[in-house]
Amino acid sequence: MKYFGELAGYLSHEPLVQLQAFNADNKADRFKSFKDNVYKFDASSMGDERLTELLEFIERKRAIAVIGYASWLSQLVNFVTNNPSSLAKTKTLKTLIAISEHLHDETRDKVEQHFGAYIVSRYSNEEQGVLAQQLAGNEGFKLNHASYYFEILKLDCDLPAEPGELGRIVVTDLFNYAFPMIRYDTGDTGVISRGEEAEQEYSYLSAIYGRKQDLVFSAGGDPIHPITLSRTLKVYPEIKQWQFIQKTSSRYVVKLNLYRPIDDKVIIDCVKNIFGNEAEVEVEVVSDIPVLASGKRRSVICELEHEG
After folding, report:
1. pTM (2 decimals)?
2. How far is CA 281 from CA 51, 196, 245, 247, 258, in A?
3. H or E stretch covering 81
4. What local confidence, expressed as pLDDT, does residue 198 receive?
5. Do 120 and 135 contact (CB within 8 A), yes or no?
6. Is residue 308 pLDDT above 50, yes or no?
7. CATH 3.30.300.30 intervals, the chain
């Protein structure tokens, strides 16, 4: 945690705000917060009033960093962007760390433009901890080789994937003596690459696609990275939130929460440009993209396994 925090521009025991969904088993511990300089904030509901309270909390704690789900950070960034007067409350922030969800380019751009800070994506799971993280100003994921042995295996068998090939992320925990996890299939998919510079001894993840069951495919069967959708849809200021669902091998639904109306044909043409002319695309306008019980918001969902 300390090492990857420093990679993100946050030093150990500098003030950190941790966004969480509170429940009976997970509440703020004042003594622990004081001891570690880590301050938990209940982000179960992130409306404008709560976002205002969060900004005041950040200012009061003089936080250097904020860590939380990517969708929560996106809501915070959008709120500040739309309310420039609130930007002064974030003047101590140096970095934002997004976890558990895909970090959209639009959020990254807004943080760098308006906050003058970095935002990085951290790849971790509950079973093992921090597995990889982006470096400030770099979209590649540096792997935690000190604690884990990583393998990227082919999607349909246990043979190693080639560099640049999409595969399953499999991890062996080197230090979990209580419950050894050998070749643990995380359920996530990604692409492993080698650094071009000679001093880069280890490989890194050039892309993380997320859960295998949420990997989406073109009408021709090719895997599509969520970032492709993010970079396509971010150019439309009408869109507040979006969710992409693959229903069958060639049928797709795009749910949109809008600031103002947009022609469905514009979105349909964009999706067909990515997924192929054979794609059947439906646009559904909604009032909100709901979160899961965990507080996460899924931007991309694949229902192919339920087909037939």
Report:
1. 0.72
2. 34, 40, 10, 10, 18
3. helix 70-82
4. 38
5. yes
6. no
7. 215-306
Residues of the chain with CATH 2.30.38: 140-211
Confidence of residue 235 (pLDDT cuts 50, 70, 90): confident
Highest mean pLDDT among 36-50, 154-168, 229-243, 268-282: 268-282
Taken as a whole, the chain contains a residue count of: 308
User: Which residues, in sequence order, are CB contacts of 169 under 8 Å at separation 6+?
Assistant: 131, 150, 151, 152, 185, 186, 188, 189, 190, 205, 208
**How many other CB atoms are found less than 10 A from the CB of residue 4?**
21
Give residues with Cβ within 8 angstroms of 134, minimum separation 6.
120, 121, 122, 140, 141, 142
CA dist., res. 99 & res. 202, Å (int) = 23
268: which 2 tokens? 């349909």
- Given this structure, which CATH class describes domain 215-306? alpha beta
CA 202 – CA 189 distance, rounded (Å): 19
3-state SS, residue 4: helix
Beta-ladder partners of 26? 23
Which CATH code fits 2-125? 3.40.50.980
Question: CATH 3.40.50.980: which residues of the chain?
Answer: 2-125
Q: What is the CATH number of domain 140-211?
A: 2.30.38
- Alpha-carbon distance 76 to 212, whole Å? 28
Sorted by sequence, the CB contacts under 8 Å of residue 69 that are 6+ apart come out as: 19, 43, 98, 99, 100, 101, 295, 296, 297
Beta bridge partners of 265: none
